[in-house]
């Protein structure tokens, strides 16, 4: 103890000495201290304000996007999207500057949320995921494109764009478009045609007429065993948006199931039937349990072999694509970007097959309206005008230019983003634009069978609850009945929250 | 200390007031220079206090006010009418509009008289408390051990020091990715190894319990080094001659530790533990980069999810944030309360 006390008392003595004796030295040091401190503060604040600010060119329109889009806009490797915009009639003085942000869709949503809440601009145009544009529309943070754009442009969009995409860009009350689709995206079933053929299956008809889930699983298992690869099928089943919006939504719809009793109630929360615990939905889960756990699982559906590794419950897109790209999986569910990577000659080339989603229940037999048959989850991105922009006219001109075919073609060539007028795919030459164009038939069929997620203002919170319960059921922590029963009551509570809000 | 001399000093200054004014020609400076040491100290603290009030207390009060209002998920207005403590009731009863709950406990009539609505490791409060207690406990033990070794004289001590501090130098997200990949069955050996030991299930990053252990180990691995550093600083300030005296008096190594090392290091140790507890209560980055917030929900995870989840539930987010601040505040006051008499001067 002594050791510590000693230095302290030394300190006392020193301070006492200073305060009593030399008042002049104290006053000097005080004054110097204050002068020094305030000087430092002033210098720092000048430096900081100097760094901020900075005006932008008055003919520049800023839009958000990712780094790939930024490069395509500038045309780093070849013809630029900017040139295509000018070709499409955009004023030559107007340049578009892409402010690249993170690739992750959730993080982009978060940053837009704060930008809009703060009423900031630039950016003048947002690129928004079709999966979360509607909450922004319902929060009145968007502008009606139906009113702002020229009538002929709106008419073309309404007539020629993919309907399912437009539905996710509309204000549910007025029916006005508040966003213009930039490109749609669809879940696709990709497979190794060579391996499946080697196992004795005839795949010639699969381009247009998919096998049933049962046949699909049998083919996956046989081809896996024949070729000696690790897995029959890889997909995404981590507890994240991709499970609830897309991979499970697809499987469920192909069984004739629905979250909310069909496709008519997708976009209006509050007063709709919750059907997550109905038999078709449970069957979809039972099939996935068979795929993951095989016969040992008492809740697995009979007649479906084990084809997927149990690890899919911690996989998102890239983790699931890895084994397929490495040649260790026969079938693989992913977005078309994966076709662009695996379909080139150096990889699988023509051996890569793409089929419409297998199904178990046809549209006629499906329990709920609009379900059954093949189903492909709808993704994709929209253009949304920032209502706080200081340059609305110029920004609208840019959005208008994006509706021209020449721009869609350029975007497909440089980024493989599917045009919102899906028929345009027929006009592209696979040799020039990459492997995705080779599967234009399958992608157009996917567009017809596209199933949007039920986006509403409460979709994000419902989605994470859904993902959680479906995930628990996939993993076998809960039985399908128990998980979907729990989900039912949680969704009921969420729907009631919205109802209460409308009552005000 | 200084107060003993102040009245006297003030008297002296008072007497020489006129000459001072002549010298500086500025009344404010004179007034300032005539302040007592304590008063001058408070004067200097004033700007910082004002700043703190502006950036810490004002947001806290605003958060509290927000948390008493209703969530509005549509329309321009982000908040609805006043609902009192309804949001807090929802949070505490497991009915919040969140995928993972703050806490979800109900009373029951049979032993142990409480029931968990969902498994305990899926409730943010218990995850965070458990994480903080267990991680700080192990970090303190391991950190103390490391510091004790580093305090000795031996060949190659410099290299051992570097080796021990290395984990602390790794950025959290990089470290998170390391553990994430370690437990990706296709990539790392972690899953197979732990399964072989019989500790983990097949997909540890999808399982709350396995993931909790992963996050815990990752944090201990990293932060024990921080503890070691702070404790080492305490150890090195111990006067070596005390040990000589103890040795001459015939004290055993255990007695030397109990009666010399521990009491002298305790203040530094407590400060280190306080820091670590605060850090552990705020854990987020490590979770987000390994198992994800749905698998291991911490309090901060909940705030982030409520605020940025996509559905506009700002009032709920505010309530969760305020509760989090409250919980952390309570834990910290445990330290301040129980250790107010120790030499560290925590109070």
Task: Summarize the model shown.
The complex is a heterodimer of chains A (504) and B (347). In chain A, 48% of the residues lie in helices and 11% in strands. By secondary structure, chain A is an alpha/beta fold.
Describe the structure.
- The complex is a heterodimer of chains A (504) and B (347).
- Chain A has helices at residues 2-20, 23-51, 67-74, 81-87, 105-117, 133-138, 145-148, 151-160, 163-167, 193-198, 213-227, 241-254, 279-293, 317-325, 336-342, 392-402, 405-415, 430-433, 440-448, 459-475, 480-503, and strands spanning 60-65, 95-100, 125-129, 180-186, 188-192, 231-234, 329-334, 352-355, 376-385, 450-451.
- With 504 residues, chain A is α/β, with parallel strands linked by helices.
- Chain A has two domains: 60-185 and 379-446, Periplasmic binding protein-like II (D-Maltodextrin-Binding Protein, domain 2); 188-376 and 453-503, Periplasmic binding protein-like II (D-Maltodextrin-Binding Protein, domain 2, 3-Layer(aba) Sandwich).
- In chain A, strands 3, 4, 9 and 10 form a four-stranded mixed sheet that branches. A four-stranded mixed sheet of chain A has the order 6-7-5-8. A two-stranded parallel sheet of chain A has the order 1-2.
- In chain A, α13 packs across α20 and α20 (459-475) runs antiparallel to α21 (480-503).
- With 347 residues, chain B is mostly helical.
- In chain B, the strands form two sheets. Chain B has a two-stranded antiparallel sheet with strand order 1-2. A two-stranded antiparallel ribbon of chain B has the order 3-4.
- Chain B is globular, with a radius of gyration of 27 Å.
- Chain B has a domain at 120-338: Orthogonal Bundle (MetI-like fold).
- In chain B, α7 crosses α10 (208-236) and α10 packs across α12 (253-281).
- The chains are: A alpha/beta (504), B mainly alpha (347).
- At the A-B interface, α1, α2, α5, α14 and α20 of A face α1 and α3 of B.
